[in-house]
């Protein structure tokens, strides 16, 4: 339990102060909560004194007892509210910070990390897992601290009246904590088994649902249910088994406190009857024994939640422990934008995609990479932008190895436009500003004009504030592509990578798109992958990539004269729609 509290404190980062303040407020809250006991002691004492002296209790006594109660109640409400507020703010802020921190780290992780199964891991980490911490950590801390402090304060009051009872009440707290720690240990041992059964159940159900059309069409409803049924049964058995173990321990935990309370009542009555305990102390013990453990008892049921918090923090930690690509990177501003690949070899897994590639792209030149689909053209671009690290060789930008840069300082120099445009579910304005968030409206409009998209944006009902992806804003492929070009124009990076940027655009949009691309690539270092000859033929240099090698390189006029893949390509593609020579 203490370990988990400590972890939450570490997890809270710069909001630790607020959490600790909320603990302190919790302590004051607990003292206020115990105030009625003080009022009662005072009132009982006055009644007994009055009885002994044969007088009535005075109005002042009644008033004072009432005042103590009222102060206690008011304090309880006030400090309860303050503690709750501080704690909620601390929990929500620490979790939102964590989400942002993980988001920032994701940008600096190797692309290899984002395989499909990891995507589930990451998205659940930033959504539900952190959500669990956000919602539960505060409550749990509150319950533990209030329960503990309340019991200790009342035990101290009891000890003042009678040290023997004090010892019993404190012993019960210690014993209760021992049972609780056994409960924690059991829950740590057992949790993986539960998760295992849960995991099996989820995959069985998923498989069933994914194959539901086959199940239906083959009428196998009955039979194919078996795997799911078995998984459900297994999960039920495990969960029942676990609950049995837990319930026994939780019952034991509660027994400890109930027995201690009964012992205090019995002993004080016994001592009273022997004349060894005053009436006031006896009444005091009897009343206190009913309330002393009422809050600490509630801690018994939190061990499951503590475990959940622990495993949630474990999951976040695994994401945080993934090494960043640019841990040792520097913020470099290169003096030129020459790009060089030197003896680069690369494979995603076993299969070699690039084999000993060497090529140079001088600053301000336009090069095209052509070759069969799947040949590794996009991969070369990904290596330049360091989405992946090369297996052998070096990729240099402005004379520096891309590994020397921080991801941010590297990407400052590069804009990429892909075939499949990804626009965020946000306004057109924000989508354009994505590459340069500080841009003014004038700069955005200027970029949009250069990307030939200002006109159609103006015609939309909400103009630049139109939400993309919502009703009324169905943009065509070409329009989306031009927005992504406006984004790149605004970013104004020195190196532009166009990866089949014009491939999926209909002929009507083609002209405007070409104009936009011309604007984007003015005075830049350009790498284009294109399947249209019209775009490739004007390149300063064309690299033909095949079988992981650069098999030909040169200008269009040179390559067309050479016997080789390029000429064959042109001849085949000339007949196809995209490769007309005009
Ligand atoms: P091109 O752009 O020339 O069509 P790519 O560079 O996209 O080719 O891909 C080269 C090869 O690498 C292809 O066979 C492709 O299937 C494979 N590949 C691409 N991306 C990945 C990836 N993330 N993981 C594994 N293999 C990949
Ligand atoms: Mg490609």
UniProtKB/TrEMBL annotation:
Location in the cell: Cell membrane
SMART domains named in the record: AAA
Main location: membrane
Domain ABC transporter: 339-572
Pfam family, one: ABC_membrane
Keyword Ribosomal protein: no
GO cellular component, one term: plasma membrane
GO MF annotation list: ABC-type transporter activity; ATP binding; ATP hydrolysis activity; ATPase-coupled lipid transmembrane transporter activity
Keywords: ATP-binding, Membrane, Nucleotide-binding, Transmembrane, Transmembrane helix, Transport
Protein's name in the database: Multidrug ABC transporter ATP-binding protein
Organism of derivation: Clostridium kluyveri (strain NBRC 12016)
């Amino acid at each position: 339990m203490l370990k988990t509290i400590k972890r939450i404190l570490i997890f809270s980062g710069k909001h630790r102060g607020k959490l600790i303040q909320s603990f302190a407020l919790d302590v004051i809250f607990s003292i206020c909560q115990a105030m009625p006991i003080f009022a009662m002691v005072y009132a009982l004492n006055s009644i007994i004194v009055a009885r002994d002296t044969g007088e009535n209790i005075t109005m002042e006594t009644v008033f004072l007892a009432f005042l103590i109660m009222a102060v206690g109640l008011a304090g309880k409400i006030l400090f309860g509210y303050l503690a709750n507020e501080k704690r909620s703010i601390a929990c929500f802020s620490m979790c939102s910070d964590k989400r942002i921190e993980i988001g920032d780290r994701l940008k600096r992780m190797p692309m290899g990390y984002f395989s499909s199964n990891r995507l589930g891991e990451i998205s659940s980490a930033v959504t539900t897992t952190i959500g669990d911490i956000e919602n539960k950590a505060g409550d749990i801390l509150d319950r533990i601290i209030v329960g503990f402090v309340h019991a200790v304060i009342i035990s101290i009051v009891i000890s003042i009246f009678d040290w023997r009872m004090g010892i019993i009440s404190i012993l019960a707290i210690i014993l209760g904590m021992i049972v609780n720690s056994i409960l924690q240990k059991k829950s740590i041992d057992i949790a993986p088994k539960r998760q295992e059964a849960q995991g099996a159940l989820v995959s069985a159900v998923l498989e069933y649902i994914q194959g539901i059309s086959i199940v239906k069409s083959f009428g196998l409803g009955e039979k194919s249910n078996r795997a799911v049924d078995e998984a459900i049964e297994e999960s039920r058995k495990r969960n029942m088994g676990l609950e049995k173990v837990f319930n026994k321990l939780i019952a034991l935990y509660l027994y400890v406190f109930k027995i201690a309370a009964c012992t205090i009542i019995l002993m004080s009555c016994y001592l009273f009857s022997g004349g060894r305990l005053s009436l006031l102390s006896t009444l005091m013990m009897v009343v206190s024994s009913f309330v002393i453990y009422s809050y600490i008892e509630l801690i018994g049921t939190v061990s499951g939640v503590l475990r959940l918090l622990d495993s949630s923090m474990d999951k976040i930690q695994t994401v945080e422990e993934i090494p960043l690509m640019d841990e040792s990177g520097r913020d470099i501003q290169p003096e030129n934008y020459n790009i060089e690949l030197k003896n680069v070899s690369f494979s995603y897994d076993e299969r070699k995609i690039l084999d000993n590639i060497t090529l140079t792209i001088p600053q301000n030149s336009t090069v095209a990479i052509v070759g069969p689909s799947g040949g590794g053209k996009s991969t070369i671009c990904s290596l330049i932008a360091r989405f992946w690290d090369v297996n052998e060789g070096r990729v240099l930008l402005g004379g520096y190895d891309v590994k020397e840069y921080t991801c941010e300082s590297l990407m400052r120099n590069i804009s990429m436009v892909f075939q499949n445009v990804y626009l965020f579910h946000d306004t057109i304005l924000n989508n354009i500003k994505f590459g340069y968030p500080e841009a003014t409206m004038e700069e955005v409009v200027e970029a949009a004009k250069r990307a030939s998209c200002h006109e159609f944006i103006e015609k939309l009902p909400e103009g630049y504030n139109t939400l993309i992806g919502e009703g009324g804003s169905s943009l065509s492929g070409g329009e989306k592509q031009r927005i992504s070009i406006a984004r790149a124009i605004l970013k104004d990076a020195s190196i532009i990578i166009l990866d089949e940027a014009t491939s999926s655009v209909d002929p009507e949009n083609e002209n405007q798109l070409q104009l936009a691309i011309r604007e984007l690539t003015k005075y830049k270092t350009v790498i284009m992958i294109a399947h249209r000859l019209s775009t490739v033929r004007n390149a300063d240099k064309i690299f033909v990539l095949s079988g992981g090698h650069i098999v030909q390189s040169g200008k269009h006029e040179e390559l067309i004269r050479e016997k080789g893949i390029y000429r064959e390509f042109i001849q085949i593609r000339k007949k196809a729609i995209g490769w007309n020579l005009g």
